[in-house]
Structure formats: structure tokens, C-alpha cells
Amino acid sequence: MSQLKKLAAAVAVALAAGSAQAQVSGGVVKIGVLNDMSSLYADIGGPGSVVAAKMAVEDFQKSSKAGLKVEVVSADHQNKPDVGSQIARQWYDTDGVDVIVDVPTSSVALAVSQVTREKGKALLNTGAATSDLTGKACSPNTIHWLYDTWMLANGTGSAIVKTGGDTWFFLTADYAFGHALERDTEAVVIKNGGKVLGKVRHPLNAQDFSSFLLQAQASKAKVIGLANAGGDTINSIKQAAEFGIVRGGQSLAGLLVFLSDVHGLGLEKAQGLIFTETWYWDMNDASRAWTKRFIAQTNGKYPTMDQAGVYSAVLNYLKAVEGAKTDDGTKVVEQLKKTGADDPLFGKGPIREDGRKIHNAYLFEVKKPSESKGPYDYYKLRATIPADQAFRPLKEGGCPLVK
Amino acid sequence: MEIFGVPTQALFGQLLIGLINGSFYALLSLGLAVIFGLLNIINFTHGAQYMLGAFCAYLLLEKLGLGYWWALVIAPVLVGALGIIIERTMLKQLYKLDHLYGLLLTFGLALVIQGVFRNQYGSSGQPYAIPPALAGGHNLGFMFLPTYRAWVIVASVVICFGTWFLIERTKLGSYLRAATENPELVQAFGINVPRMITLTYGFGVALAALAGVMAGPIYQVSPQMGADLIIVVFAVVVIGGMGSIMGSILTGFGLGVLEGLTKVFYPEASNTVIFIVMALVLLVKPAGLFGTQK
């Protein structure tokens, strides 16, 4: 009898323990960092995003009493939508991943967002740019965390048109991201009284831009808008210098530029570039302190805004899991929309019903080599675009979730 | 005057640009053709060796302060020597086996080398400036031609035809060709065939490194610069006819021009046009344009 009693007690304890953990699938919150680990966008997110995610987990564990078990996994989507959605499916179906973060490359992000919605999980997208993620392709399971093409166009495009750059030629990466960035920037240019004289669409990861630059040169446009990113932007800028485009009186507008791009170009070539970002390492004490911890783990590579965004997203996600007492994707996203985000790097920021997270954006200019005083001392702040003006108004996106 | 809505002036510019890109294709496919023609090895490490050449130039400048002209000599020698070590220690074992083994080995090596550099230097690449003597450019009326690009065309034409002459028209070249046809017989004449093969591989690899040094100032010096290019270069070699030296040179320049024109008339297809040509050529002439059926 006592044997039976003991057994019953053991079963009861096991069940009780089970029910306490039951809200968290598999007893562990599993975070998947999905991005380009090896090609032209790998320095923007890549392994650095994994470091940032792990830092967020560490900081959450320090402040939380919930005793959640958290695990971070990562994979390379190779900038291919089919590879990305296949990894997402496997993660959700068999590996017990609860949330995917980062996912640069808009075409991949749109595909993964679709899979995430199907499976009722969560996608916190910091890496991709297309504003369609909170527009016609918005989803109750996706939060677009960091920046988007509308914000970039609005920040950089209008600043340039207002200072006289009123005729444009676009050099556009030929996929979802480039198309969205070109579309959103064109709208801003035209709204501010400018004109688009032409555009050329180049394949992703194109290497040689001389032919496209020659076409841009022939258009006689005052501004050549680079609707591309990462390695493509670096090579466009580098080769534009070679063909004397800036000396000939045309200027370049880098519509999406990251710290790693400026580092790759060197200040000599990048100086004077104007672009919009939502975060820079040297903004305040909190960002500098965080950066110090970050570079200790990345061989001295400084964080990009994407990597800071991954930290912010993961930290807020874990808080929301704790708050909602579940890791059910749809519910955690609801919780995040209810509470908004708050973290040391981006401060307080609401999350709208279309999935757009809101915070300030900043117009930066790249310093001259003589102005730079230390490693990665690259940007100076030209203007702050306040949070309520930085992003597309809720009503204009055409997101079906917005009533 | 206009051709299909494109001003002739602009078209001249694009043709010239195509020729510049073609010279890189020619230089890289030349090394591949030499290695395949004489060793029967499909050298998938070629892209990584091209990247090593560029990194060598970058490191010589950063660590030792040696500029472009030094790099043009030192990088091919160093990378070529590395190639010789690879040939002596690994490739040598595979000559008697199927092509597939050489392919697997060289492809694996390429992945390892690229991975190591990516881990160390990241993917954005390192800047490498155009040497002062070749900076600037000339206004040709129809386009602005950077001096450095003009240098690339001239240098690559000289190197390509020099190599062709060496292999097809000199005594050393005839030994080499004989050694591929019948190694035993050539060995019987007192020629050290294995050493000749080792040096040939080293030479092919050095050509890749040389192309890498020349590419450094134009593209970023980045770990995947070779991986991005090598697929196209393989297509060039296949179109030209595997192992045909003149074929790979002419096809390299020709396809560069074709790609340049595609960038004007239908830019979206510019990275597929070479493969379309490859498919067509293989359908009509499976040995390639200049290849001979064995």
C-alpha cells in the first residue's frame, strides 16, 4: 500500500510540475535566429545577431524570477525564400522553435512570415526592409521591429529632395526589397516635387555595377538612389567613385546603409553619405555600454542597428512570454502589442496593430576621415525624426488587420 | 543615332565595359583551362585561390606596407606555392581516379578556405585602393574610362596570349601537351613528368591569384568574391570547350561583351544570359565552341 501511495505521490508531483511548465511548449522557450550567415548580408546580421540574441537572454535571466528555460538556435537562409521557409517549417514542426528573429532579405521574410502565421508562431523581424510586412502582407504573428522601406524613403528621400536633389535615377536590387524601397522612395520624391528620370534593376549580389552606373550617368539625374543593400551598396559606391560620378556633379543616395557597409568602404570613400537608421552604437551611455559587451564577443566588430534590434526584440519577447505566461506565438504577439516594448537600446516604443514597432529614426552623415577619432567613429547626427513621424501612418498601409 | 532606343555613344561605353569584365573571365578561365587541359582536374578551388590573391595583396599592404606592384608579383608566387603544396599532398593521389574525386576535393577545399576567411574578416570585404599611378581616368567622349580599367584590359590580353603562346607554340609547351597525351613515353625521354604537372598546377593557380590582385581595387576584397565569380567562369570554360586555351580566352572576352549588352537591353537577365548560352552551346556542340571530342 505504501508503495502504491509513493507511486501516486510521484505521479502527482510529476503532473503538477508538468502543468506549471505546460504553458511553455517543450518546457523551453526556443529562439531561432534566421539570417544570411555567409553571403553579402552576413555582416549586417549574421553571427553577430546570434551574439545579440544570447545577450538578451542573459539580461532577461538576470532580471526575471520566472526561471524560464531559454535556448537560442541559428541557421543560414542563404537569401533564398525556399531555403528560409523550409528551415522555418522544420524549426516549428520538429525542433520546437517558438519564435524566429532577424530574417533579413525581404523575399525570405515574406515567405517566413507566411509560414509563421500558418503555424501560429511568432516572427520578430529586424532584418528585412519591405514595408509590405505591415502593409498588404501584415500578419497577426509578425512584428516588424526595426525599420522599413517607407521609413528609409521618408527619412533620406525627403531630406535630399529638400536640399535640391530633385531629379533621381534608381539602381535597384531586383527582388521584393529593392522594388519596395524604390516604390516608397519614388513616392516621396514625387510628393516633394522631384522627378524620377529612370531606373535600372540589377540582380542581387551583382559584383560589377559599372554598366548600371554608366546608364545612371547618362540619365543626367542629380541623385542616383541606391535601392540595394550590403555588398551591393558597397560595390556601387566604390565603383561610382572610380567612374568619377560624384566628381561629375551627381550625388549618391544610399537608401539603406549599415555600419558594416561604411566600415567596408572606409571613410575615404563613404564620407558625406547621408542615410537613415534607427540606432547607432555611439548615441548614449546605454548604447556604448552595450556595445562594449558586444564587441568583446565578436572579435572587435561593432554592432549594426540590425544586431541591436535583435537584442531589443528578444528581450521584449521574453518579457512578454513571462507576462502572458505562455509561448503561444499569437498570444505573445498580442501581449507585445498590448504592453509595447521597453529596453535599454531603443527605450519605450509602442507596437501597432499592423505589427509595426515605433521608435525614433535618425538622419546620419558619414564623417570625414579627419573627424573620426576612434574605431568605428563614423556617423554624425544630422536630424532626429520623431517616432510619430518616422513610420507610415497606420491607415495608409492597407493592412487588413487594421479596422 | 540610336540602336534599339539606346544611343550609339552609350552602346560603345557598354561594349568597353563588357570587354573589361570579359578580361577577368578570360584570365580566370584561362587558369582553369590550363589545369583541366594538362592535369584533367576540374579545379573548383580556383575561385578561392583568386580570393587568396586579393587577400594576399590586402595583407601585404596592411602588414608590410608593400603596395600594388609588389603584390602583383608576390601574391601569385605565394598562392602558386600553396597550390603546389595542395597538388603534392592531395591532388596527386587522385589522378588515377574518376574526375569526380578531384572535383569533390577541390570544392571542399574552396569551402574551407572561404569559411576561414569569412570567420576572420566578415563578409563586407576590405577596402583596397587603386594604386596612385593608375588612379583617375580619361574622358573618351562617349564615356569616362578609369585608367585602372584600361590597365586591366591591356594586362589581361598580354597575359592571356602570352600563356597561349607558351603552351601552344614553345618547346616547353609541346612537352607539356605530350605529357598529357602519353606520360609514360615522355618520361622515357628523360623528362620529369610529375614535376612538370606540379608546376603546371602552380602556374594555373598563380594566374588565379594574379586575377585576384587585379580585381582587388575594383571589387571589395571579400571572402566570397571568388565564389560569386567562379560559377560564371565555369560556364565560360564549358562554352569555350573544356581544356581549350584559345577557346577560353575568346569566350571569356566574348561573353563579357554579351553580358554587358544584356545589362543595357534587359538588365534583369544579366546574370542568367551566360547560362542560356551555355545550354544552347551544349545542345548544338557538346564539346564546346573550340573543344574537340575525345
Overview of the structural elements:
The complex is a heterodimer of chains A (403) and B (294). Chain A has 403 residues and is α/β, with parallel strands linked by helices. Chain A has two domains: 197 residues, Response regulator (Rossmann fold), CATH 3.40.50.2300; 158 residues, Rossmann fold (3-Layer(aba) Sandwich), CATH 3.40.50. In chain A, strand 6, helix 6 and strand 7 form a beta-alpha-beta unit. With 294 residues, chain B is mainly alpha-helical. Chain B has a domain of 203 residues. Chain B is 71% helix and 3% strand. Chain B is built from eleven helices and four strands, in the order ββααααββααααααα. In chain B, the strands form two sheets. Chain B has a two-stranded antiparallel sheet. In chain B, strands 3-4 form a two-stranded antiparallel sheet. The longest helix of chain B has 32 residues. At the A-B interface, strand 7, helix 7, helix 8 and helix 9 of A face helix 1, helix 9 and helix 10 of B.
Properties at a glance:
heterodimer; A: 403 residues; alpha/beta; Rossmann fold; 14 helices; 43% helix; 18% strand; B: 294 residues; two-stranded antiparallel sheet; 11 helices; 4 strands; 71% helix
How many H/I helical runs of chain A? 14
Uncertain runs of chain A are 14-22
Number of strands of chain A: 14
Distance between the termini of chain A: 63 Å
What oligomerization state is this entry in?
heterodimer
Which of globular, elongated, flat, extended, rod-shaped describes the shape of chain A? globular
